[in-house]
Amino acid sequence: MKRTLIAGVVSALALSAGLATSALADIKIAHIYGKTGPFEAYAKQSHDGLMLGLEYATGGTMEINGEKIVVIEKDTQLKPENGKALLEEAYGDDEVDLAIGPVSSGVALAMLPVAEEYEKLLIVEPAVADSITGANWNRYIFRTSRNSSQDAVASAIALAGENVHIATLAQDYAFGRDGIAAFREALAAQGHEIVHEEFAPTDTTDFTAAGERIFNAMKDLEGEKKLFIIWAGGGNPWAKINAMDPGRFGIEFAGVGNILAALKGFKDFEGMEGGTYYYYELPNNPVNDWLVKTHFERFDSPPDFFTAGGMAAGIAAVEAIKKAGSTDTEALIDAMEGMEWETPKGTMRFRAEDHQALQSMYHFKLRVEDGVEWAIPELVRELGIDDLPVPIRNQ
To answer: 174 and 118, same structural domain?
Structure first.
């Protein structure tokens, strides 16, 4: 009887140890993003893309070397203080191996020091501000999303030309300020200067005063006149300023690409040009083919702007863990610096100096087609990694 009891205890201890080992073997990833708030549409796309990326990269198993991937979701509500606290909770209480997110650049900037304090990886997706991999960067930060400079360089290449005059309008926070600073620099490299800059609060709905200042700065200029707008979320400055009839001064709109919901409002701007990050018909590669097909099957709609980015982040996480052979942070950093991997946009590469993902961008021109709800960004040309001189801003 004693022998039976001892055997039972040993078996129970072994089972307990096995369960503990199994639990510890899970690969835990925190997705910290603004599920609620003005960027809710961006957040849903990002999360859907992340889960599709993990699925694609693991061949549908959601496992790496037999270890299950567990994704823990946390909602920042677009508040920087929430992002900071939730990342601390993820690293400390949840003991995640790495984190991905957030949507907002302002939230991302609050989260960066937490990654450094805990010495854990944060893969930034889809926040864009240059300062994330620039002045505020640390070695635990990798970014799969494009940065403001990539938007700016692509747009400058698309828009610059002889006797072209460009004014700008952007949101008065990190995304807009960094974006225009990068665009100004990229235009200077093309031999151009910005004629006039306007910054407006993120909740602006009345663009009358800003529009009048832009018109006054451009109305007497000779040549092509373009208003380049960087804007995220609500407000719709294009429609509001268009209602003021910029065409009477020969002013046309220009800008970066956007999500499908926003492109619905661009049907009045056929012929508008700029540089874009993604539109589902632009890339030509097997990963994008899988994403488009799978997204239509599951959601009855095409993948959107941030779906592709979320997928790129998910694939990057899996490929990094495979390459490192573990989830040890230092091993992951070694594996990811200079790492190339395939995404819906083709090959991406983490630049060793600042961990920014170098990637293709697309020079587009809007086309309107009967039966399509949105303006279609038609490819003028793909701008590959070697076509985009993206500055290193953390040195």
So the answer is: no
